[in-house]
Amino acid sequence: MTAAFPVEALAGLAPVGLAELVERAALQTRVDRKYLVPEAVLPALLGQVAPYAQALDIDGARVFQYRSVYFDTPWLASYHDAAYRRRRRFKVRTRTYLDSGQCGLEVKINGARGSVTKHRLLYDPRDGETVHPGRGFVDEVLARESLGLATGTPLDPVLVTEYRRATLLLPESESRVTIDTDLAWRYGGATLRLSGVAVVETKSASAATPVDRVLWRAGTRPARISKYATGLAALRLDLPDGPWRRTLRRHFRGTIAPATPAPALSPRPEQEASCV
């Protein structure tokens, strides 16, 4: 069973509002480091970073529900670029903040030396499963980045993810940390849930953050995981999975059971991936 997010541990951190978080650490161009950690260690981790971390607080809430819809070409160009580790690649998604109902259409560009640049357009949440209203924005970003996708190439919804997120600000390094739990994926008629593990992601201009150092001292090293690519690889066994094979073997075990019709992401999953 998935453990509850350690809200009590978050309560021990000083609060920070959304406007200040964005002002101090928007980091639209950044270096990301991702870690897979057991949910059981989160209280200890938060306790260690409490002296120099603040928790995003909106009207007293510190954990928020997210839904992302990922779009790709009919031949999964975005996925294959990641699978074959092409240095420059793109990802297109909508992200809906379920607590507030706000939504954004995002284009993420992976560039040299592991840098990530995110372009974002405010979006109508009713359009969260289509790129059509924002297609001009997507084409403009991809053309400016010279990524070679022809204007008008179909971009269809492929994968849906949901998770709960807490966000930390590290003021001294002007960096951010996100902690995602209760991760769930839906592809076609199959769903997958990742139980008992959290994805901790540090986002900085380049240098390691204090959270990176705490994790390194504990023997935890960055993991290869992409919510889109790793989730799709777990659900589509016919796809190349080289970059995420170790993560898949260690954290995504079991058989994905098809379901018809495609179920909503609900508290009772068809399958839970086991974690070591």
Architecture overview:
The structure is a single chain. The chain has 276 residues and is an alpha+beta fold. It has one domain: Hypothetical Protein Pfu-838710-001. It contains eight helices and twelve strands. The protein has an eight-stranded antiparallel barrel, surrounded by five helices. Strand 5 and strand 6 form a beta hairpin. This is VTC domain-containing protein. InterPro entries: CYTH-like_dom_sf, VTC_domain, VTC_sf. Pfam families: VTC.
Features:
VTC_domain, Hypothetical Protein Pfu-838710-001, alpha+beta, disordered C terminus, 8 helices, eight-stranded antiparallel barrel, VTC domain-containing protein, 276 residues
Give me the count of strands: 12
CATH architecture: Beta Barrel
Spatial order of strands in the largest sheet? 2-7-6-5-4-8-9-11
Shape: globular
- Helical amount among residues, as a percent range? 10-25%
Radius of gyration: 18 Å
End-to-end separation in angstroms reads 14 Å
**Oligomeric nature of the chains:** single chain
CATH topology term:
Hypothetical Protein Pfu-838710-001
| Structural class by sheet pairing and helices | alpha+beta
Pfam families: VTC
Protein name: VTC domain-containing protein
GO biological process, one term: polyphosphate biosynthetic process
InterPro entries: CYTH-like_dom_sf, VTC_domain, VTC_sf
